[in-house]
Amino acid sequence: MTQATVDEDGRGEVAALTAAACLFHGFSDRSRLSIVQHLALGEHRVVDLTGHLGLAQSTVSKHLACLLDCGIVTVRPQGRASVYALAHPAATLDLLAAAETLLGLTGDAVVLCPRYGEGAGS
């Protein structure tokens, strides 16, 4: 993230941090992340994604709605189907590459995190 212009009471910084947290929340679900990775390969219909990912149609549709609301994906009609694509493919791929780099640097720390890792809350 770039440093935001901050007004005297810090509202600009708070707004920028809130937006960033919302963006990362859009990527925080394993199913949504799988959908984003598939859309990085090109446009897909819901039926294509359900087949590729082994997820229920309702699950894929729910997560696509979230990604659409967040501005991460776009949708266009094609006959009776809807075709989804990444709204900003280059920026999304850059973000995913940066995440992979950071994950490589942290090793197993993220997975083992007692608050958000695999065993969290159990």
From TrEMBL:
<dbReference type="Pfam" id="PF01022">
    <property type="entry name" value="HTH_5"/>
</dbReference>
<feature type="domain" description="HTH arsR-type">
    <location>
        <begin position="12"/>
        <end position="106"/>
    </location>
</feature>
<dbReference type="InterPro" id="IPR001845">
    <property type="entry name" value="HTH_ArsR_DNA-bd_dom"/>
</dbReference>
<dbReference type="InterPro" id="IPR011991">
    <property type="entry name" value="ArsR-like_HTH"/>
</dbReference>
<keyword id="KW-0238">DNA-binding</keyword>
<dbReference type="GO" id="GO:0003700">
    <property type="term" value="F:DNA-binding transcription factor activity"/>
</dbReference>
<keyword id="KW-0804">Transcription</keyword>
<keyword id="KW-0805">Transcription regulation</keyword>
<protein>
    <submittedName>
        <fullName>Metalloregulator ArsR/SmtB family transcription factor</fullName>
    </submittedName>
</protein>
<dbReference type="GO" id="GO:0003677">
    <property type="term" value="F:DNA binding"/>
</dbReference>
<dbReference type="InterPro" id="IPR051081">
    <property type="entry name" value="HTH_MetalResp_TranReg"/>
</dbReference>
